[in-house]
Structure to design on (528 residues):
């Protein structure tokens, strides 16, 4: 999308700030008319994306910031979560299910991206040349 | 600075060890949840209920801790139930497969009845 | 304060966005341990400051943005509301009370700054050389 | 895009014209509030109650509209009451001086009793 962001949020890479981001974006989505359960889905998805930016992309370096930008179009809300790319995202094949985890054959963590994919309409890393990771979440507005 | 406010406490009701979880369930919850589990297990609990209070924030790192508990529960031949989750987090628990390994009840009373029915 | 901002928020100069700012900053203050009524006071004060930035400082020009920056210290939360200064703030003497308004001797509007002053611990415009207005709100943390 | 969702409606109870205000009271509320007031006044209302529902957002532009209503109420020799405000907004209404010109009641029932007591 080429439009200007409507709401932008930025915070240091410390765990805990994702909670403020969740609530800010939830307030925004609610005001845009998203219903309750959609807002809950978005909160959980956005929280996971922010934690990834804090932990992986910015390596929990408080001085590095995470930027969350919201773009609104007629039919959708797009959110870009941007970190500084200390670590660049690399796709890592399949996601382990709970059975492998329980048998000790996969790490307990590693469910965030899978959860996000199921909670919003589109999600994924986008290409950019600024050296950071950009993770994009899209929610289509459902006409009621 | 923005660390979690989670309070974890344990109690017993009708032969079920209840672990009450009030607040945020994230990576910071690990010690509190694991030690509550260790405590009730040390006391010989066979039926364990994780009792939420419509918690507003449970993330994937928090869920990973709960999957760790399921591993222990299986190893120790215990039975695990979960109650008090909001509709949203019931959905999330199903999504990550936790619902296959722990019975999900609406509330504590329903859970206690469920454990009793499974025993008789 | 010289520290880096902890949370920053930016939005277009359209009425309505102050509601999202209110809720974002409220979530932040709540997480910092402010009690309910303090958070309500802050929401109302911040909402007024944002509306002033949207309406007066940025003349409701959607392309101009309002920036809200939060700084946290041991004893306080400081918030800077920044507009582009299309109109520069000029102090205008006394504030009319309700009696003058009711007698038609003063405009009905013009209560925002007075309300803000009563709701937070410190408030006022600060000097800056960037051409915009900076309005600062301070809330001291009360040890319970 | 982020305009207010305010719904304003009128009804009558025990001789009091009640204007229910549900939602945000800001500059966008002007037309709705003024026309509700004009309507009940046209019907001859002498006792008017602005009945809020613990509204979460009332700003100074919204309060300015209410002060405009007080001006009219004084001019028309009506009596104005306000009910259903949260503690926070009761404080704000006192702060701006509105409490001198409108009786503030906790809820609708209390307001109806208050109007009745003032009449007898
Ligand atoms: N913003 C990011 N920057 C760099 N790597 C990332 C980012 N987000 C995710 N990843 C990578 O993808 C993996 C899977 O992420 P996720 O499913 O959220 O699980 P978890 O964060 O628990 O490992 C992470 O372990 C990390 O290697
Ligand atoms: N951010 C700002 N930029 C420029 N002028 C401002 C700003 N904030 C307030 N003012 C000036 O101060 C006056 C009083 O503001 P306020 O008390 O909030 O009442 P109102 O906004 O209803 O007029 C405004 O009318 C305006 O002239």
């Amino acid at each position: 999308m080429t439009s200007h962001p409507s709401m932008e949020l930025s915070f240091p890479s410390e765990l805990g700030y994702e909670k403020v981001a969740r609530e800010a974006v939830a307030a925004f989505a609610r005001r845009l008319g998203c219903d309750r359960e959609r807002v809950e889905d978005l909160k959980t998805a956005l929280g996971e994306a922010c934690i990834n930016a804090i932990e992986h992309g910015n390596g929990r370096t408080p001085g590095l910031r995470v930027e969350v930008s919201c773009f609104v179009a007629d039919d959708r809300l797009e959110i870009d979560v941007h970190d500084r790319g200390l670590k660049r995202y690399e796709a890592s094949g399949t996601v382990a299910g709970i059975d492998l985890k329980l048998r000790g054959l996969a790490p307990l963590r590693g469910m965030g991206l899978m959860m996000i994919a199921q909670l919003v309409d589109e999600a994924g890393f986008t290409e950019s040349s600024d050296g950071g990771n950009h993770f994009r979440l899209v929610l289509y507005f459902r006409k009621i | 600075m923005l660390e979690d406010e989670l309070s974890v406490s344990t109690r017993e009701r009708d032969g079920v060890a209840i672990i009450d979880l009030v607040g945020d369930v994230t990576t910071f919850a690990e010690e509190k949840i694991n030690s509550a589990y260790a405590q009730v297990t040390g006391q010989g609990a066979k039926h364990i209920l994780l009792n939420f209070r419509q918690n507003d924030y449970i993330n994937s790192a928090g869920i990973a801790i709960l999957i760790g508990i399921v591993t222990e529960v299986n190893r120790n031949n215990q039975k695990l139930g979960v109650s008090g989750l909001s509709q949203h987090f019931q959905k999330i628990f199903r999504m990550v497969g936790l619902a296959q390994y722990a019975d999900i009840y609406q509330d504590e009373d329903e859970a206690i009845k469920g454990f009793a029915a499974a025993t008789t």
